[in-house]
Every structure is written in structure tokens, then in C-alpha cells.
Amino acid sequence: MKRVLSLMFLASTAMAQVTPADENTKSDIRYNLNESGSHYVKMTFTNQAWFRFNESNPGTTVLGDPKGTTFDIGLRRTRMQLFGQITDGLFFYTQFGMNNFNKLNAFPAYNTNGTLSNRKIGAFFHDALGEYEVYRKGTSFVRFGGGLTILNGLSRFSQPGIATIMTMDVPLFAQATVDQTDQFSRKLTAYSRGQIGPVNYRLGVSDPFPVETSGLVPPPIGLNSTFAQRKASKQFQALLIYNILDTEDNTTPGYMAGTYLGKKEIFNIEAGIISQKNATWRTEGSDTLYNNMTLWSVAAYLDIPLNNQKAFSAYLGYFSTDYGKGYLRYNGVMNPATATSRTIAGVSGNHGNAFPTFGTGSVIYAQAGYKLKEGLLGRKGTLMPYASLQYADYDRIQDGMDVYSAGINWLIKGHNGKFTLNWENRPLYKPGSVANELSKDGRRSSFTLQYQVSI
């Protein structure tokens, strides 16, 4: 009982103790289980509030009303983590929270009287796992674990540490099966992860969720590939990262930093893959055909300090995304709209701020940011402008797809307290000159102010 009361008191006052187990302890909510601090329990909290103006896709409606533009307020992410090193070998990690909470977050579920359903939804366990360390020598280690986890094989942005994102949001195409056969990118997985010299590895076998449990009615089988409702199989994944300079933090499974703001000197080369047999299906004539899903990427990541406490961060990656013939999925982050009067055959959800985010083909993604000197604004922190580009060559899109983003972070206290102002420009599409393909039909923009508080 005394230990429980002590934990509650220390958490409420955010008292910190510098320990060799964690570099960032001055503002931690942490309770040490031994005198050295190598055994501990830690809690974190992150909230990202969005204030957004969006130019709507053609035909967009909000609860039946046509809307050329929208302004909405929402919570992009609200998360709490509780994790700790219980003994030298035993580690646990949990994360609880919600995502994409705006006034339409319950849509499209309705009550029997035709009104929108209960808005008190969405909070759930994102992660719940345990792992055991079987080998440790210096910075090298090998761990085995299992449970509900975001750890996977495709890339660093497939398992992002959301509190440290440099751009306002992550490139969602890298979370390849999000809310289709996973739970907001998390899967039930048995895995091994470790650091062997300069090489960091993650290996996993996942048991994907049935697409029927995604919360939406799965699309009927047809000409284009969609996630299959039969012949479920396991998913295999691997990610290898070669650390040329400093070694990245390995405290939690998955979760890789967006930028260290010059606190580390990182240059990595990575390669990853996700593979699943019979992941999708489609029809060809009277036959039902199953497709293997094979997703792989190669990338380089640079995050280094510069003179006068400045820093530079950059990422360049190539992704090959084979979901099966004809696969194409629109997605709109925290979509401010509900429907459209201008549907496009062969796709769904093309309203609001959506664009073809996932598809069979390939993607090139790049981002870069420059942190200005510490104390640029005195006690109010500093600034970090950035830009990103996503270019997708999906099979069903003529002439490719490009999405631009540019913005600036006001780092009041690093990632713990920051404002981000972001502009995004995305393409629009209409039925193309070739059957089952889409061609460009103009562009739209959105402007978002994010306020992040994290501890």
C-alpha cells in the first residue's frame, strides 16, 4: 500500500530522478523500483488538438448539406502510456487513448430514429504487451515479446512515435492496413526485436483482424482487389535498420522518433517488408482470385545537430505496395464531411478531404525540416519549418498522384509544448479515359493549426 501511495504522489507532482535507464527524466512521470533506477514504471500523456479549414472535394455534403468548405475542431490523438522495466529481463508496455475525435466521429452509425449514434466512443487500448530480454551486452540486446502492438516491418513511419512527429502528421500510406485488418495500425503479434552492433532489427508474425470487424460493412467482392473475407492467413514482417552514427532509442517496441531536434546524431539506412498470403480477393469472370500482399520499402533517415544549437532532419523512402490488382483506397484524416453527391465508380469515401492514400503500385516519400537556434524567441522557444512530398504511382491513377505539405513548428518546449501550422495540397480525381482508371480533376488545400501538449 505504501508503494502504491508513493507512486500516486510522485506521478501527481511529476518528480524526476536522473537514471541510466532513461535519458529524458527531468520532466518524467516516473517511479523507480530500485535505487539505481534501472527498474521503473513510467507514465506519459499526449494530446493533439486540430483547428482546420478545408476546401472540400467536389460534391461534398455534411449531414446532407452541400459544403464547399468546412471548419472543424478535433482531437487528432489523445494518448496515455504506462510502461516499465520490472526486472532486468521483464518489460511491459500499454497505451490507451483515442483518435480522430470531431463532431462527426461516430458517423456513419445511426440510431433507429435516424440521429447520429453515441458520440462517446473511440477510446481503446492501442497496445498491450510484455517482452523478455534474453541477451544484453553493452548496447546490444535481443528481446522476445507478444501482444497487441504497432511493431511491424514496413518502415519507421509505419510505427511512428507520434509525440515527436516533425511534420504535422505522419505519411498514412506507410500504415498500410490501418483500420482494415488491424486496430489503428496495431496487430496481435509475436515478435523479436534487438540491436546487434550497428544493426537494429524487428521480426514479427501477426494474426490480422478480419476485415468484417473494422466497424464498416466490407465492400462486396468485385473487379478490384479488396481485403478477403475468407482464407485468412498470418502476416510476416521484418525491418532492418543500419545505424551509421548514433544508435536510436530502443526503450519501447515499435515507436520511432520523428525528429530528435538535434539531441542525437542519427544517420540510418533501412529496409522493410510485410507479406501475407491470400490477403485480398477479386473476381475475374466467374472465378474468385486471391492475391498475396507484398509491401516493401528502402529508405534513409538523417537527423543531426548543427552549429548554434540548430538541427536538420530529412527522410527519403521508396515503397513498393502490392495489395493485388486494382486495389485503391481513399482516406481522409478525421474527415470533416459525411458523403458526396459525386461518387466515382470503383472507389468509396471520396468526400471531404480524402484522396487515394493506399493503392497497388509504388510511392516515393520525402520530408525535410530545419530547426532554428535554441532561444530564437527568447523564453518562448524556437521555430522549425518543414516540407514534405508524397508521389504515388498507383496502377489505377493516370499520371501519378502528388500531395504537398509545408508548415512550421513553434517549439515552446521542444515536443512537450508546440504549435504547428500546416498547409496541405492534394489532387482531385474523376473517371479517366481508360476504364477503371482515374484522371486528375483539379486540386484542393487544407490549413490546420495543431496544439500539442506532451509529457
UniProtKB/TrEMBL annotation:
<feature type="signal peptide">
    <location>
        <begin position="1"/>
        <end position="16"/>
    </location>
</feature>
<keyword id="KW-0732">Signal</keyword>
<protein>
    <recommendedName>
        <fullName>Short chain amide porin</fullName>
    </recommendedName>
</protein>
